[in-house]
Specification:
The complex is a heterodimer of chains A (342) and B (367).
Chain A (H helix, E strand, L loop, with lengths): L3 H19 L3 H38 L15 H11 L10 H17 L18 H9 L1 H12 L3 H32 L4 H6 L8 H4 L1 H14 L11 H4 L9 H26 L10 H20 L7 H26 L1
Helix pairs in contact in A: 2-12, 3-12, 4-6, 4-12, 6-7, 7-10, 7-14, 10-12, 10-14, 12-13
Chain B lengths: L8 E5 L11 E7 L2 E8 L7 H6 L3 H9 L6 H16 L5 H29 L4 H21 L8 E2 L2 E2 L7 H23 L3 H7 L7 H6 L5 H4 L7 H4 L20 H25 L18 E9 L2 E9 L5 E7 L1 H13 L4 H11 L3 H5 L1
Antiparallel strand pairs in B: 1-2, 2-3, 4-5, 6-7, 7-8
The chains are: A mainly alpha (342), B alpha+beta (367).
C-alpha cells in the first residue's frame, strides 16, 4: 500500500517523460537521476544520523535515570539541528604542526566511505540504489576505508594521543574485519549469492530468517560489528579516559562533525547489514517493507546502544586476544558447520 | 631489509586530562601502549594550607581544613578539631559525638560514591556514575539540612558541632539508610561480576603488602592487601567502640579487591549510621568554648581514619591563639607515592584503572 517503490517509479517515469519531450540526451538524464538518488540517500542518512544522535542521548539519559535534552523542542528534538548550526559556525582550526593535506582529507574519506556502502543496502522492496551481484563483498570492501581515514587523522594531527588512537583503531578494525567477513560467509553459503536483494528474498518468512540457521554467525557478526564501529565495549580508539578523544582530538567544527556523522552512519550501516543478512531484511507482514527494515535496524541499533551504556571498556590487548583467539576460531567453526550441513 | 627502528616516546598525561582526578600530571615514557616509566608531578593545587594555619587563629583555621580534601570535608574538620580537643582536654557532649559519627560516616559513603562513579567512568562504564551521584545527592541534601552547605561544610567545631540536627534530619537520614543497601546491590549488579569488568580489574595493579607498608599506604588500599588496619578499631576515637561494624579487607590486593573493599565499606558505614541514629541521645550539641580559644603550649599528633586512609594533624602550640606550626599528614599523598612502583610495565589503560582504584584526590595530595 504505502510502498515507496511505487512513488519512486512514478517520479522516475514522470521525469523520463519530461526529459524525452525536451529532447535531452539519455546520458544526461541518467547522470541527473544518479545525482538525485545520491542526494536522497545523503539526505536520508544525514537525517538518520541526526536522529540517532538524539536517540542515543535520550536512551543514555533514560538508562541513567535522567531526561536528556528537554528544553529545545518536544523532548529536545531540536537539539541536533541547533548543534549542527553551532558546529557549522565554529572556527575550523588546524594545529600548526599538523600535516595539512591528510588532516583535511581524513574526515572527507571517512564520510565518503560510510556513504558509499549505502549503494548496496536494500532499504525496502525495490529501494536499493544498485543491486550489485557482489553487493555484500562491496560493502565489506568499502567500509574498510574507514581505517585509512582514522590512521590519516591520527597521524596528521601530530598529537601523541591521536596517534595512539589511530594505531589502536587500525589494529582493531583489521582484526575484527576477519571474523566479520567469515560470519557473513555463512549466510553467503546458505544463499549461494552475494547480492543483497537475493539474500533478502531468500528469507521470506520469519522461520526462514538466517538468524535461526546461523545463530552463531549472527552473534559473531554483531560483536565484530560493534568493534568495527568503535563503540563500547570496543571503543578503545577514542577511549575518553585514556586517550582523551583518540584520533579526532585535534578536530573541531565541521571536520569533527563529519567524524561524528560517519560514526552514526556506520552504525546504521552495520545494523542495516545485520538486518539484511540475518533478520530477513525488509520482509514482514502487513506493514510496508521499508518500515519493517527501519524497525529491525532501529532495534539492533538500540541493542548496540544498550551495550554502550552498560558495559565497561575492554583493554587493548584483551580486545586483540578476544578477536584473534576467540572470535576468529569461532567464526571458522561456524563456517565449517555451515559448509557441512548446508 | 633494514630492521624497523622503534623508539620510546614521552607522553604528558595531564594536568588537564579526563582521568587525573583534579590536576595531576604524569610524565609517561611509553613503548607503544606500554608504560616504561612514570613520574607523577604534583603541586598544581598547592595552597600552602600548612603555612596559612600559622597566620590564623585555631578557630579561623577550621574552614580551611574543609579544603584539604573537599570530597570528605567532615573528616578534615573532625581531625583538626579532635587534635585541638585533645590538646586543650575538652570533651564534647555525647550528642555531639553521635552527630559527628553520623555525618562522618555519611561523608564516607558520599566520598566512596564519588570514587565509585569516577572509577567506573575511568574503565569506560558510563552509567554507574549517575547511579552513584543519585544517592550522593541525598547525602548532600542531608548535609545541606544541617549546615547549609553541600561541600566545605565547616560543621564540626571545637566542643561540638556548629548547629543541632534539625527535627526532620533523623527521619530523612533513617530513610536514606533504609534505601541505601539495595542501591549498593544495584551498583554491584552492574559491575562486580561483569566479565569485562573482571578482565579489567582482576589481577591488575597488584600492590604487594610489603610495598604498601613501605610506602605507608593506608586506608582501603592497605586493607585490600589483606592487612587489617583501621584506626577506628585499632585506636578507637570518638565513640566508634560503641558500634558493631566489620572492617572489610581483601586478599589479592588488585584493583578488584580495592573496589570490593570500598563497596563493602559503604555497607559498613551505612550500618554505623543506622546504629547511631537509633542510639542518639538528647542533650547539648556544643560545649561553650571561648572565642579566643587558647590551648596550652605543647605539641600533639592525632590521627583518624579518613575515607582515604590515615589523616593526621601535628600541631605545635605556643599557648597563643595561633598555632606555631601545623603539619598535615594526608593519605592520598602516600598512596600516590606507591603508584609509580606498580604502574611500571602496565598498559596505559591499566594506569587509568589503577590510579582510579587508588582513590587519590589531588587537593589532599597538594594541600
Amino acid at each position: 500500500m504505502f510502498e515507496l517503490e511505487r512513488l519512486f517509479k512514478a517520479v522516475y517515469i514522470w521525469l523520463e517523460g519530461i526529459s524525452n519531450s525536451l529532447g535531452i540526451p539519455h546520458f544526461w538524464f541518467d547522470l541527473f537521476t544518479m545525482l538525485l538518488i545520491a542526494v536522497i540517500v545523503l539526505a536520508v542518512m544525514s537525517v538518520g544520523a541526526m536522529f540517532l544522535v538524539w536517540w542515543e542521548r535520550k536512551i543514555s539519559a533514560h538508562f541513567q535515570q535522567r531526561f536528556g535534552p528537554m528544553r529545545t523542542g518536544w523532548h529536545g528534538w531540536l537539539q541536533l539541528p541547533i548543534d549542527g548550526i553551532k558546529l557549522i559556525t565554529k572556527e575550523d582550526t588546524t594545529p600548526a604542526l599538523a600535516d595539512k593535506l591528510p588532516f583535511l582529507i581524513a574526515p572527507i574519506v571517512i564520510f565518503v566511505a560510510s556513504f558509499l556502502a549505502f549503494v548496496c543496502l536494500p532499504f525496502g522492496r525495490g529501494l536499493i540504489v544498485r543491486d550489485l551481484n557482489i553487493g555484500i563483498l562491496y560493502i565489506l570492501a568499502v567500509t574498510t576505508f574507514t581505517v585509512i581515514s582514522i590512521l590519516m587523522a591520527g597521524w596528521a594531527s601530530n598529537n601523541k594521543y591521536s596517534l595512539l588512537g589511530g594505531f589502536r583503531s587500525a589494529a582493531q578494525i583489521i582484526s575484527y574485519e576477519v571474523p566479520l567477513t567469515l560470519s557473513v560467509l555463512g549466510v553467503v553459503i546458505l544463499t549461494q549469492s552475494l547480492s543483497m536483494v537475493k539474500i533478502v528474498s531468500s528469507q521470506q518468512h520469519i522461520w526462514n530468517w538466517n538468524i535461526w540457521k546461523q545463530p552463531l554467525g549472527f552473534l559473531i557478526y554483531l560483536t565484530a560489528a560493534v568493534a568495527e564501529v568503535n563503540r563500547t565495549p570496543f571503543d578503545i580508539p577514542e577511549a575518553e579516559q585514556e586517550l582523551v578523544a583518540g584520533y579526532n582530538i585535534e578536530y573541531s567544527g565541521m571536520k569533527w562533525a563529519m567524524f561524528f556523522f560517519a560514526e552514526y552512519t556506520n552504525l546504521i550501516l552495520v545494523c542495516g547489514v545485520a538486518t539484511t543478512l540475518f533478520l530477513g531484511g525488509w520482509n514482514g507482514p502487513l506493514l510496508p517493507s521499508w518500515i519493517w527494515f527501519l524497525g529491525k535496524t532501529l532495534f539492533l541499533i538500540w541493542v548496540v546502544m544498550w551495550f554502550r551504556w552498560t558495559f565497561p571498556r575492554v583493554r587493548v590487548d584483551q580486545l586483540m586476544g578476544f578477536g584473534w583467539k576467540f572470535l576468529l576460531p569461532l567464526a571458522f567453526l561456524n563456517l565449517i558447520l555451515t559448509g557441512l550441513f548446508a | 631489509m633494514k630492521a624497523l627502528k622503534t623508539e620510546e616516546f614521552e607522553v604528558n598525561m595531564g594536568p588537564h586530562h579526563p582521568s587525573t582526578h583534579g590536576v595531576c600530571k604524569f610524565v609517561l615514557t611509553m613503548d607503544g601502549e606500554q608504560i616504561i616509566d612514570l613520574v607523577p608531578h604534583i603541586g598544581f593545587l598547592h595552597r600552602a594550607l600548612e603555612k596559612i594555619a600559622e597566620n590564623r587563629t585555631y578557630l579561623q583555621y577550621i574552614p580551611f581544613t574543609d579544603r584539604i580534601d573537599y570530597v570528605s570535608s567532615m573528616f578534615c574538620n573532625y581531625g583538626f578539631v579532635l587534635t585541638l580537643e585533645k590538646l586543650a582536654k575538652i570533651e564534647a557532649p555525647e550528642r555531639a559525638e553521635y552527630i559527628r559519627v553520623i555525618v562522618m560516616e555519611l561523608n564516607r559513603i558520599a566520598s566512596h560514591l564519588i570514587w565509585l562513579g569516577t572509577f567506573a567512568l575511568d574503565i569506560g562504564a558510563l552509567t554507574p556514575f549517575l547511579y552513584a551521584f543519585r544517592e550522593r545527592e541525598r547525602i548532600m541534601d542531608l548535609f545541606e539540612m544541617i549546615c547549609g552547605q553541600r561541600m566545605t561544610f565547616n560543621y564540626i567545631r571545637v566542643g561540638g558541632v556548629s548547629k543541632d540536627l534539625p527535627p526532620e534530619f533523623i527521619p530523612k537520614a533513617k530513610e536514606f539508610t533504609r534505601i541505601f543497601e539495595p542501591k549498593v546491590d544495584e551498583y554491584e549488579n552492574i559491575l562486580t561480576q561483569n566479565p569485562i569488568f573482571l578482565e579489567r580489574a582482576k589481577g591488575v595493579g597488584v600492590l604487594p603488602r610489603k610495598l604498601a607498608i613501605d610506602y605507608s599506604v593506608t586506608g582501603p588500599n592497605l586493607r585490600a592487601t589483606g592487612f587489617k588496619w583501621d584506626l577506628r578499631k585499632e585506636e578507637p576515637y570518638s565513640i566508634y567502640d560503641r558500634f558493631d561494624f566489620d572492617i572489610p579487607f581483601g586478599a589479592n590486593s588488585d584493583t578488584w579487591d580495592r573496589y570490593m573493599v570500598r563497596i563493602r565499606e559503604m555497607r559498613e558505614a551505612n550500618r554505623i549510621v543506622k546504629q547511631a541514629l537509633e542510639q542518639i541521645p538528647e542533650g547539648d550539641f556544643k560545649k561553650r568554648v571561648p572565642v579566643l580559644f587558647k590551648p596550652p603550649a605543647g605539641e600533639i599528633y592525632t590521627r583518624i581514619e579518613s575515607t582515604r586512609g590515615e589523616m593526621g594533624f601535628y600541631i605545635i602550640s605556643d599557648g597563643t591563639t595561633k598555632p606555631y606550626r601545623v603539619k598535615l599528614r594526608t593519605a592520598s599523598f602516600s598512596n600516590l607515592a606507591a603508584l609509580p612502583e606498580i604502574a611500571r610495565g602496565c598498559l596505559i589503560a591499566d594506569l587509568v584503572a589503577i590510579f582510579a582504584s587508588f582513590d587519590v584526590i589531588m587537593p589532599d595530595v597538594d594541600r
